[in-house]
Amino acid sequence: MIFSYAPSTSSGLPSPAMPFQGRPGPLHEYLAEATQRRVEAKEFVFMEGDPTTNVYWIESGAVSLFKVLSDGRRQILGFAYAGDFVGLGAQGERLISAQAIKPTRLRSISVAKLHKMAAGDPDLSFKLYQTLAAELAEARDLMLTTGHRSACERMAAFLLALSRRNRRNGKDATIIYLPMTRTDVGDFLGVTIETVSRTLTKFKSRGLIDMPQSARLHLVDMIELERIAAGEEH
Amino acid sequence: MIFSYAPSTSSGLPSPAMPFQGRPGPLHEYLAEATQRRVEAKEFVFMEGDPTTNVYWIESGAVSLFKVLSDGRRQILGFAYAGDFVGLGAQGERLISAQAIKPTRLRSISVAKLHKMAAGDPDLSFKLYQTLAAELAEARDLMLTTGHRSACERMAAFLLALSRRNRRNGKDATIIYLPMTRTDVGDFLGVTIETVSRTLTKFKSRGLIDMPQSARLHLVDMIELERIAAGEEH
DNA sequence: CGATGGTTTGAATACCATCAAAAAGGGTGG
DNA sequence: CCACCCTTTTTGATGGTATTCAAACCATCG
Predict the structure, then answer these.
(1) Cα distance from A28 to chain B (closest Cα, Å)?
(2) Which residues of B touch A118 (CB under 8 A)?
(3) Comparing C-alpha atoms, which of A189, A188, A166, A178 is closest to residue A212?
(4) Model confidence over B175-205: pLDDT tens digits?
(5) Over 50: is that where the pLDDT of B15 sits?
(6) CB proximity B181–strand D (7 Å threshold)
(7) Is the CB of B192 less than 7 A from some atom of nucleic acid strand C?
(8) Would you place residue B27 in the very low, low, confident or very high pLDDT band (cuts 50, 70, 90)?
(9) What's the pTM?
(10) Which stretches within B149-221 are classed as H helix?
């Protein structure tokens, strides 16, 4: 689960969590000495049903969080990037799965240790609470997106969410890199890969975006994309 | 926001939160002396954008939690019933709205007071954290439901979730009372009221349910409903 | 180079939303 | 108790959008 100190932007689609920027505290100190773990692309960080032993902090790379239905259909619940936390909130066993979408470096934090620290530190436990609240807000934004919206609206909202994330991180808000596959995007937005592809092609032919590579794209007309995301155009 | 001590059943659709059954603690004591508030059907408990001043515990009645898009489309995020908490997790201002769906009695708890209690009580603050985690799990189950599933699957999953709730509360799992309107159900499942109605009619004509009144129905063939919810039939 | 995994494009279908209207409650007042 | 109005629910007909099935295209890697 994404762990973020930043409140959700509440702009239709969940903005991926913000990098860890809390003031130095017990968690911060613990992180510095935490054991490192490397996972390759497609490797699981944890799976639904696993016992919850650790929480992870992403040093580099990206992770997808998802649930799978018995027939194989998958709903991606979010993407976590460098600086995000993954695995918070679960009790006992994992309710969701986490899988790297590219080679990723993680710092591993014992849940027992985290809980012990939280028990002795009301400030930390309140922060955990706040963090989970932010994640919940994100989840709800995603529901708003996948609930009633057309494929175009979902895609536009998704691109703009990634754009906002870039801006927050001081990067170019118009250049977007998609480390995940079309399948991942589709499973996140609740549409098929063909629809993802068709929608992006449509945006491109309308001059809203440029797509030199399938994983790298440039937002040309963000104002129009905003209108599409808001349901004012299609 | 729904506040529950029960983990999500992770069975496709969020089970509405479980009644408050925690051991007596500071929160429990505070509840007993908390001021009461009555709201009529359709009256707001709070609206998106309101300052977050209180958390509410439902003594009787039912409440819907939702967000509205600028064009008026609405996504219901969940329903809270007697025994549930509403309004937890928000910082500063409300990110969602809460509206009674029938006459409802609430106990009002000051957020400031709650936070003060939590700061001095690691056990309570951990419980709040756990509760939010359960709510997050519910939200994710809803995503799974509204993400890729057909109207039949969503409806079957919804009915079964209400059935499980009844069973947990010691009530008849086959008799379901829907206090909310078709519009509410539709906005929750992400389909139109017509589709809600048609789907129920289809279930009825197939002998899966009986519907003596539009708000009261009887689950006849739960095994088949389970299969539909799992996507094995339609 | 061929093989593989991922992406794009095409054509036909299925499903749900939309628009429209009828039917079924639920109150209120005569 | 019935007539009336209002809201909610149900039913019907139609069209649009996304899915499905299928094949071509493209990049990467052994």
Answers:
(1) 20
(2) 122, 125-126, 129
(3) A178
(4) 999 999 999 999 999 999 999 999 999 999 9
(5) no
(6) yes
(7) yes
(8) low
(9) 0.84
(10) 151-168, 182-189, 193-205
Residue B130 has pLDDT above 70, yes or no: yes
Gap between the Cα atoms of A54 and A52, Å rounded = 6
Report how far Cα A133 is from the mean position of its chain's Cα atoms.
Answer: 15
For residue range A171-190, list pLDDT tens digits in order.
999 999 999 999 999 999 99
What is the rounded distance in angstroms from the CA atom of residue A36 to the CA atom of residue B187? 44
State which amino acid sits at residue A16: P
pLDDT for residue A189: 94
**Residue B149, both tokens:** 């599933």
The verdict on A17 touching B (C-beta cutoff 8 Å) is no
For residue B77, which residues of chain A lie inside 8 Å, CB to CB? Answer: 140, 143
Task: State which nucleotides on strand C lie below 7 Å from a protein beta carbon.
Answer: 6-11, 15-20, 25-26
Using a CB-CB cut-off of 8 Å, the residues of chain B touching A231 are 69-71, 73
Separation CA A185–CA B231 (nearest Å): 22
Rounded alpha-carbon distances, angstroms, from residue B97 to B47, B67, B68, B233: 4, 6, 8, 35
Least confident of A76-80, A220-224, B121-125: B121-125
Q: How far is A193 from chain B (nearest CA, A)?
A: 13
A20 and A98 in contact (C-beta within 8 Å)?
Answer: no
Report the alpha-carbon distance of residue B3 to residue B19 in Å, rounded. 9
